Amino acid sequence: MSSRLKHIAISGNIGSGKSTLAEKLAKHYGWIPLFESVENNPYLRDFYEDMSRWAFHLQVYFLNSRFRQINEIRNNDKTIVQDRTIYEDAHIFAANLRKSGHISERDYQSYFDVFNSMIEFVKPPDLLIYLRADIPKLVKQIEKRGRDFEYAIRIDYLKNLNEHYETWISNYTQGKLLIIDVNKLDFVERVEDFAYVISQVDYELNNLFS
Questions:
Q1: pLDDT tens digits for 49-102?
Q2: CA 9, chain centre distance (Å)
Q3: Alpha helices per DSSP H over 30-124
Q4: What is the pLDDT, as a whole number, of residue 88?
Q5: What are phi and psi of 13, to 5 degrees?
Q6: How far, in Å, CA of 43 to CA of 63, rounded?
Q7: Measuring CA to CA, which residue among 153, 186, 203 is closest to residue 16?
Q8: Considering the domain 7-208 in this protein, what is its CATH number?
């Protein structure tokens, strides 16, 4: 199974636990973790202070960064677990910024043209894991990790993202999908919760190529 398994991706809203789970799964299975560029992102802090000014710049940065990751996955002979997908950049974050008026229709269409050109070269992950989390869980996790620039995130922003996520996931047909409700889980502090996640992932992996 492992020799044919190439790409696991973890999707979910801000604060849902993607990076933490990617790190723990990588350690458990011996996979290579591929994280979202946050600390070295030149636009993220500015974006949370002024979304309308920096939204387009941020989305183009993320799109290019994610496409580079896709090439890295394609050229690597080991199994990679990816923190967030290129699909989310377009269908969740850019779409939400357009809907909320932070990206103009003209800029959104230009962005989506680039995305559509890129997506022709993108192979979907072997397994997409979606972490479903309600707003209280997201807020708690965001506060817990203590990134000062994230304190400006508004509740309605997270709520709108969640709505976009649910729509996207309900229509996801690109490959195998595992949905994990993390509202009552703490896979960092509780061993039994991580064991539950592993059991779910194992089940999907065992059926992946059968």
A1: 898 999 999 999 999 999 999 999 989 889 999 999 999 999 999 999 999 999
A2: 8
A3: 44-49, 51-75, 86-88, 95-99, 105-119
A4: 94
A5: -65, 170
A6: 13
A7: 186
A8: 3.40.50.300
List, by residue number, the catalytic residues. Answer: 83
In the predicted model, what is the mean pLDDT of the chain?
Answer: 90
Q: Which residues of 185-195 are buried (b: 16+ CB within 10 A; e: fewer)?
A: bebeeeeeebe
Rounded Cα distance, 123 and 207, in Å: 19
Q: Which single residue is written with the structure tokens 């933490």? A: 20
Q: What confidence score (pLDDT) does residue 40 get?
A: 77
Helical (H) or strand (E) element with 127 = strand 127-132
Lowest mean pLDDT among 24-28, 75-79, 105-109: 75-79
Q: How far is CA 180 from CA 74, 104, 132, in A?
A: 26, 34, 6
Q: At what angle do helices 135-145 and 155-170 cross, to 10 degrees?
A: 120
- Quick one: tokens of 198? 């592993």
Domain ranges of the chain: 7-208
